[in-house]
């Protein structure tokens, strides 16, 4: 691809140790003419889990409203272009190469993290292509995240805060929440998910300090499932809506955040409902129905699910989804799992305590993938039946039985990307 060479050169500039700072980002953007000051109205999103799903709902609602929308998310699953969406379409290869080359020239060979470089390139592209709205996801944390050089977003959204990236963000929820709440800007409305008490307190204090109007799910507004519909209510609205297209009970809350944001942006209820029905976010409780892994199922009544959830909070959401499926249609459960070596495998597997399931541990295309045997030992320590396999395809073949089974492939977005790269179900353009 034409962008491969500049990406590799920019990777080589990555500092030996990541020190979270905005100085490098501000320096390179100033050399580029400060594209961060020439963006469409921004919805800035931070949090531990649910950022991508919330933005997928909001993007679908905005497009149903007839708006042109830019989107920045990370990481990608299959192709780097997935990170930058311009007016509804993934950035094309040549334009991506162009903006990356310009970032490289502006940086002049100085230290720059890979995420800083690619964020600067995204800002450059977003500033040069008109749009009605930019949906902007943080990469790591908030206060010192490369995306946080924008000065006045239209809205800030904070999804559920939990434990992840502790080496960079801290080892307790209060410290982690302070990082995430760093996206709150003066007089900018803030919408928050349900939070643990420590995180909610931090967010409330940050909003008060910046005189930013704050709405918290469960207090000022709420969303819940009732009679196979999604009901949303706040002080000004009571909406009877379609259930989200994205699977899992946790998507009700993600949809609720998007609905609250959509109402703040004056979207119609019709656009909101159509957005719920059309949102797409690959690798998040995605039912795989094509490709070699699906073809390997010996009983076509078996189910194959894929999710990139990789921390304890995500594992709890997966557990709830499996419980919901099992209550309606019991099937033997098989978990195919791969985790990065900086993730808490013990806490991840603890979420599945009490479930009768078999775990097959696999590797994937990352140098930081946990060795399958090490991962299997962690599963065994939580009382789970475990084994290992060379690949997801071998794992799917290994867990077949004479009866239909329910298989969940999970643990890392890198693993999800490997699976989607094998699948005929490619990332939507």
Automatic annotation (TrEMBL):
Keyword hit for Metal-binding: yes
| Highest rank taxon of the organism | Bacteria
Which InterPro entries does its entry note?
Answer: Folylpolyglutamate_synth, Folylpolyglutamate_synth_CS, Mur-like_cat_sf, Mur_ligase_C, Mur_ligase_C_dom_sf
- What is its pathway? Cofactor biosynthesis; tetrahydrofolate biosynthesis; 7,8-dihydrofolate from 2-amino-4-hydroxy-6-hydroxymethyl-7,8-dihydropteridine diphosphate and 4-aminobenzoate: step 2/2; Cofactor biosynthesis; tetrahydrofolylpolyglutamate biosynthesis
EC numbers on record: 6.3.2.12, 6.3.2.17
Reaction it catalyzes: (6S)-5,6,7,8-tetrahydrofolyl-(gamma-L-Glu)(n) + L-glutamate + ATP = (6S)-5,6,7,8-tetrahydrofolyl-(gamma-L-Glu)(n+1) + ADP + phosphate + H(+); 10-formyltetrahydrofolyl-(gamma-L-Glu)(n) + L-glutamate + ATP = 10-formyltetrahydrofolyl-(gamma-L-Glu)(n+1) + ADP + phosphate + H(+); (6R)-5,10-methylenetetrahydrofolyl-(gamma-L-Glu)(n) + L-glutamate + ATP = (6R)-5,10-methylenetetrahydrofolyl-(gamma-L-Glu)(n+1) + ADP + phosphate + H(+); 7,8-dihydropteroate + L-glutamate + ATP = 7,8-dihydrofolate + ADP + phosphate + H(+)
What cofactor does this chain's UniProt record say it requires?
Mg(2+)
Molecular function (GO) terms listed?
A: ATP binding; dihydrofolate synthase activity; metal ion binding; tetrahydrofolylpolyglutamate synthase activity
**What's its job?**
Functions in two distinct reactions of the de novo folate biosynthetic pathway. Catalyzes the addition of a glutamate residue to dihydropteroate (7,8-dihydropteroate or H2Pte) to form dihydrofolate (7,8-dihydrofolate monoglutamate or H2Pte-Glu). Also catalyzes successive additions of L-glutamate to tetrahydrofolate or 10-formyltetrahydrofolate or 5,10-methylenetetrahydrofolate, leading to folylpolyglutamate derivatives.
PANTHER family xref list: DIHYDROFOLATE SYNTHETASE-RELATED (PTHR11136:SF0), FOLYLPOLYGLUTAMATE SYNTHASE-RELATED (PTHR11136)
- Official protein name in the record: Dihydrofolate synthase/folylpolyglutamate synthase
């Amino acid at each position: 691809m034409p962008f491969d060479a500049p990406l590799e050169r920019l990777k080589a500039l990555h500092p030996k140790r990541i020190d979270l700072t905005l100085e490098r980002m501000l320096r390179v953007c100033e050399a580029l003419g400060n594209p961060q000051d020439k963006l469409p109205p921004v919805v800035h999103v931070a949090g531990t889990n649910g950022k991508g799903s919330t933005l997928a709902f909001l993007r679908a609602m905005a497009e149903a409203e007839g708006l042109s929308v830019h989107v920045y998310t990370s990481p990608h699953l299959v192709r780097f272009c997935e990170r930058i969406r311009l007016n509804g379409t993934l950035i094309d290869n040549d334009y991506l190469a162009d903006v990356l080359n310009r970032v490289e020239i502006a940086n002049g060979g100085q230290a720059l993290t890979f995420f800083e470089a690619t964020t600067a390139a995204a800002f450059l592209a977003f500033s040069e292509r008109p749009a009605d709205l930019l949906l902007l996801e943080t990469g790591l944390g908030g206060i010192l995240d490369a995306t946080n050089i924008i000065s006045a977003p239209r809205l800030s959204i904070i999804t559920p805060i939990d434990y992840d990236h502790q080496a960079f963000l801290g080892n307790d929820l209060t410290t982690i929440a302070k990082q995430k709440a760093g996206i709150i800007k003066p007089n900018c409305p803030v919408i928050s998910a349900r939070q643990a008490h420590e995180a909610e307190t931090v967010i409330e204090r940050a909003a008060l300090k910046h005189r930013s109007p704050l709405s918290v799910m469960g207090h000022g507004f709420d969303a819940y499932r009732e009679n196979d519909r999604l009901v949303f209510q706040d002080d000004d609205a009571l909406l009877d809506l379609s259930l989200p297209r994205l699977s899992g009970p946790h998507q009700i809350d993600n949809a609720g955040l998007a609905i609250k944001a959509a109402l703040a942006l004056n979207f119609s209820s019709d656009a909101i409902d159509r957005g719920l029905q059309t949102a797409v976010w690959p690798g998040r409780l995605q039912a795989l129905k094509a490709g070699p892994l699906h073809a390997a199922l010996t009983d076509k009544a078996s189910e194959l699910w894929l999710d990139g959830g990789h921390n304890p909070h995500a594992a709890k959401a997966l557990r709830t989804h499996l419980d919901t499926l099992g209550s309606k249609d019991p099937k033997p459960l098989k978990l195919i799992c791969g985790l990065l070596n900086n993730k808490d495998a013990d806490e991840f597997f603890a979420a599945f305590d009490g479930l009768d399931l078999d775990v097959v541990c696999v590797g994937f295309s990352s140098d930081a993938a946990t060795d399958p045997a090490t991962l299997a030992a962690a599963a065994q320590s939580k009382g789970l039946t475990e084994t290992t396999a060379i690949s997801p395809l071998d794992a799917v073949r290994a867990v077949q039985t004479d009866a239909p089974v329910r298989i969940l492939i999970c643990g890392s977005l890198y693993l999800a990307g490997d699976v989607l790269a094998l699948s005929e179900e490619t990332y939507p353009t």
